[in-house]
Every structure is written in structure tokens, then in C-alpha cells.
Amino acid sequence: MGAAAQASVPGVYAWGVTVAPAAWSRGAPLLAKIAAVAAVLALLGGVLGERFWEGRARTVSLWGFVLSSALAWSAAPAALGPLRIDAPRGIAGMIGWALFAFASAAPALQGRREEQRLVDGAELVPRKTMARGDAALVTGGALVAAALQLLGWRAASAERELLVRFVALAAGLAIIGAAAEVALARHSARVKRSRLRRLRRAMAVLVVLALLGLTGVLFALRG
Amino acid sequence: MQLVDVLAIALLVAAGVAFFVGESALSRAEDLQALYWLAVGVVSLRAAVQVARPGAKT
Lengths: 223, 58
Hints:
The structure holds 2 protein chains of 2 kinds.
Chain A: H1 3-23, H2 30-53, H3 55-75, H4 87-105, H5 112-117, H6 134-148, H7 158-185, H8 194-201, H9 203-222
Helix pairs in contact in A: 1-2, 1-3, 1-4, 2-3, 6-7
Chain B: H1 3-27, H2 31-52
Helix pairs in contact in B: 1-2
């Protein structure tokens, strides 16, 4: 992973916490949105351009990202007012920008140990091949977790928004964990009558789920 | 892929949908609905893991 790619991770985080909310806040002009999109493109362009132009691409990407972000903030100054930014988001944004600055200023060095471990021409043999569907399962879980982050940004109050964020984060982590567990469980040793045993063991949870479903249907019919 | 794996994946999807609906209700301040759907999501997730986990090796 190149230095620009490493810096892009905290960069995207800083952008998501400080630039995007300002650009897409109520009453923000189109210029702010265009500048915010340009900032992300500059960041991604640095990651891609680093392969061909190395240091020059990194410099262009860094300044493109910083200046586009500054333009987005300048175009929507009302979004940066003290009443629009709460303390946790402000601190998160500061940490994001500090990490981005650190990652941009001190690119990762090529370790000697890494070079010694590489044997040119030797083909690495994977210990185990990934079964078909595992990646799709975990990616699906990650996509659902990401989709949960799209909701609740315009809740009635700041406390409600914070609660929705917390619930979305917890639910997203639980879904990713469960998807990984389901994917891993498919490769475990199977024994005879395992299917029945698994269903029997999960029966209590399935019954609770059915009762919840029934309750929902009854409430829906009453309403 | 066994039938129980398909059931586990279906329960995972159901959990995702339930969380989505629950979170949407939470943002609209409909707390009872939110609680219901989040509970459905948690139980579906638990059921998916329980169903997917294989039996003990004999």
C-alpha cells in the first residue's frame, strides 16, 4: 500500500466528518457540493496516480484535497457555525485531520525485513482456497452495515441523531460479525444428523422470532 | 450449500431489513415500532448464527 493510499483512509474519514456534512447541510450552495466531490476525487486520484507518478501525484492529491475542502467550507460558512457543530463531531474531525496530516507528512518507509522475505519468481501457494460465496456474504453484511449509516441524519433533535448513530453502529457491527460467523461455519466439520441438531438447538430462538412475527401481525391487523 | 445455510442467510437478510426499518422508525421518534423491529433484528441475527453453527464433532 502506497503512502497516498495510507493517507486516504484518515482523509476519507476527515472528509466524511467535516466536509460532507457542511457541503450537504441545509442551504449549502451547489459550489460547496462540487468542491466536496472534487476533494474526494483528488484523494482517490492520488491513490491511483501514485502508481505512475509517485511523489508528484501525492503532492497534487494532498493540495487538491485540502484546497477543495477549504473551498467547500468557504462556500457554506453557515454550516461551520458553533450552533451547527457539536463537540464530539468537532473532536472527531480534528482527530481525522490530524491523522491525515500525519499520514501525509510521514509516508510509510519500505522496511528491510519486507524485502528480505520476498523471493523473486517464487509463487506463493495459498494454504486454503476461499470458498465461493464467502466474500459475497461478508461483503453483503458490510453493505447492509454501510446502508444503516445512511439513515437518521435529519432526526428531530441532536440527541435522537446521536442515538440513531449509536444504534446503527452497533447493528452494523453485529451484522458484519454474524455474516463472518455464518461464512466460517460453512467450512466447519459436518457430522451426520448435524442439520437436525442445528435446527433443534436454534429452535428456541426461532420460536421467539415466530412469536415476535405473530405479535407484529396482530398489531398490524389491529392498527 | 445445505438448506440450513440458506435459512441462515435468509435470517441474516431479515435481520438487516429489520434493523433498517427499526432505525428508520427510531429517527422518526416512533419508539415502540423501533423497539419492536430492533428486537426482531437481534433475534433474527441470533437465530442465523445458531442455525449456521454446525453440530459438535462426534
